[in-house]
């Protein structure tokens, strides 16, 4: 072997060694990083819970990013009535327990603040302008169904009860009368023109399993935010508790 | 005589290997999500040929009841997937490497010859260069697929805010099918890719890590036929290094 072949041979060896060593070190680092993330501790139970700490941080950051694209002018696609499902899917009954609930005595509690609370009956709500929507309801699980709901738009409700001051706050909280199911909504989504306090489905009063007498239909969110059987509506600048965000899901869950 | 020939730029190697674990995590977390509504199958005339996926599959890979976790991982690593893909495309554009990547007019005809050769049906190969015709098509397709995953993903992630993307993808339901089909496409690509890499051998594999190939070249250009008999080289003005 002459000098030249020798240097080429050396070059090959040297470059291969550097490259493969770098590759191995970086692979190791990547694997270590993955192990760290995968085994990172779950967040302390609070408004949100059960997600890994770094992943919860990422969810919240991603929320901030995608909120930039939210607009009350982006309307959910609507469909003709005959497209609406007759057999409307029931996915969860949490908060709809029969014990301690009498539909006749139901009242909606609106908490402007802790000390400023008023109560409404179903007649009050039915007296407000009725809006219907036929849209593609989307579940976080991945299924969707075209459904037909009717009730009062949340913005009409706000206007009628002069809650404009309250809407300057960041969040709306809603919960069932027994407080077992509860959702937190960013104000922009709550005030979306297609957000409805619904009391009818397919032109009939809501059935119990669909959240009678009054439920939330918020098409800019996944189904998990569409709380059934509203007991209390409240306003706050801090995130209200959210049932599924406490089970590791994204708080925002916006579509 | 051995010669070092540069083949893959650092940017290409970097993005290739960064993409590998990211895509693996995206597919895994995607399966955690898909499980919650795993309804797809290949069914023709009432007969189901493939079910996506049978219970043993979810069980074996521990994919059940992990939707929230799947979403949390998926919507973090989507950023890395997008940024890494974007950087690769940017590199091919700036460096001009796309010229060796995008299929040419002749590629579609030639690709058949490559496939026939690889299946041992045909003996000769069309010109190889950096990427042969079949590679040009496959590697361009996989970039287009990656872009497709981002677009269909956005269509099902924000179908209200990006309603026009959802519309472009044929609606929410169809976008989800496309998103899933693309993932199956990656898996099929991966299988073929691995087989081809194994068949292509060490020199080729090393080039995707170290960047270079080692070629056997004659010491003097134009004297290939006598390269194994250095004594016969008479031209003293041959290349010195």
From TrEMBL, chain A:
Domain Oxidoreductase molybdopterin-binding residues, every copy: 101-244
Keyword Lipid biosynthesis: no
SUPFAM superfamilies: Oxidoreductase molybdopterin-binding domain
Keywords tagged on the record: Membrane, Transmembrane, Transmembrane helix
Transmembrane regions listed in the UniProt entry: 20-38
Annotated signal peptide: none
Record-given protein name: DMSO/TMAO reductase YedYZ molybdopterin-dependent catalytic subunit
TrEMBL record, chain B:
Domain of life: Bacteria
UniProt membrane topology term: Multi-pass membrane protein
Annotated TM spans: 20-50, 70-94, 137-157, 177-199
UniProt entry tagged with the keyword Hydrolase: no
Record key words, sorted: Cell membrane, Membrane, Transmembrane, Transmembrane helix
Gene3D superfamilies, per database record: Transmembrane di-heme cytochromes, Chain C
Protein name: Thiosulfate reductase cytochrome b subunit
């Amino acid at each position: 072997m002459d000098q030249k072949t020798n240097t080429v041979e050396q070059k090959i060896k040297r470059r291969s060694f550097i490259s493969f060593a770098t590759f191995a070190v970086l692979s190791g680092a990547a694997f270590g990083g993955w192990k760290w993330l995968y085994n990172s501790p779950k967040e302390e139970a609070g408004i949100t819970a059960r997600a890994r700490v770094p992943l919860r941080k990422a969810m919240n950051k991603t929320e901030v990013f995608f909120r930039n694209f939210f607009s009350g002018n982006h309307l959910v696609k609507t469909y003709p009535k005959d497209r609406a499902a007759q057999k409307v899917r029931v996915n969860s009954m949490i908060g709809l327990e029969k014990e301690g609930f009498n539909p006749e005595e139901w009242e909606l509690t609106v908490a402007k603040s802790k000390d400023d609370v008023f109560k409404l009956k179903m007649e009050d709500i039915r007296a407000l302008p009725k809006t219907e929507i036929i849209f593609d309801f989307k579940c976080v699980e991945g299924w969707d169904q075209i459904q037909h709901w009717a009730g009062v738009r949340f913005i009409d409700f706000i206007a009628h009860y002069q809650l404009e001051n309250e809407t300057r706050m960041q969040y709306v909280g809603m919960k069932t009368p027994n407080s077992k199911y509860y959702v937190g909504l960013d104000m922009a989504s709550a005030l979306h023109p297609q957000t409805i306090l619904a009391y009818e489905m397919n032109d009939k009063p809501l059935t119990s399993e669909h959240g009678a007498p009054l439920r939330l239909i918020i098409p800019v969110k996944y189904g998990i935010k569409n709380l059934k059987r509203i007991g209390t509506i409240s306003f706050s600048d801090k995130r209200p508790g959210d049932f599924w965000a406490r089970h590791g899901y994204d708080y925002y869950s916006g579509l | 005589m051995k010669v070092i020939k540069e083949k893959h730029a650092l940017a290409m190697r970097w993005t290739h290997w960064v993409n590998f674990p990211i895509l693996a995590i995206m597919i895994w977390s995607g399966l955690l999500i898909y499980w919650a509504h795993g309804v797809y199958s290949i069914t023709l005339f009432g007969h189901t040929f493939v079910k996506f996926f049978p219970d043993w599959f979810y069980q074996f890979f521990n994919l059940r009841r992990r939707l929230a976790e799947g979403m949390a991982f998926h919507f973090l690593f989507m950023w890395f997937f997008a940024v890494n893909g974007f950087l690769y495309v940017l590199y091919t554009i700036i460096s001009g490497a796309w010229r060796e990547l995008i299929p040419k007019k002749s590629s579609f005809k030639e690709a058949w010859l490559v496939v026939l050769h690889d299946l041992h049906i045909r003996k000769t190969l069309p010109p190889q260069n950096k990427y042969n015709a079949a590679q040009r098509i496959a590697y361009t397709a996989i970039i287009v697929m990656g872009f497709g995953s981002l677009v269909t993903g956005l269509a099902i992630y924000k179908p209200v805010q990006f309603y026009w993307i959802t519309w472009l993808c044929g609606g929410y339901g169809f976008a989800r099918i496309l998103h899933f089909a693309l993932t199956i496409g990656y898996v099929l690509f991966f299988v073929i890719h691995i087989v081809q890499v194994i068949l292509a051998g060490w020199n080729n594999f090393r080039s995707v890590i170290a960047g270079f190939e080692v070629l056997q070249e004659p010491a003097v250009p134009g004297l290939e036929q006598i390269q194994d008999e250095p004594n016969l080289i008479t031209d003293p003005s041959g290349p010195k290094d």
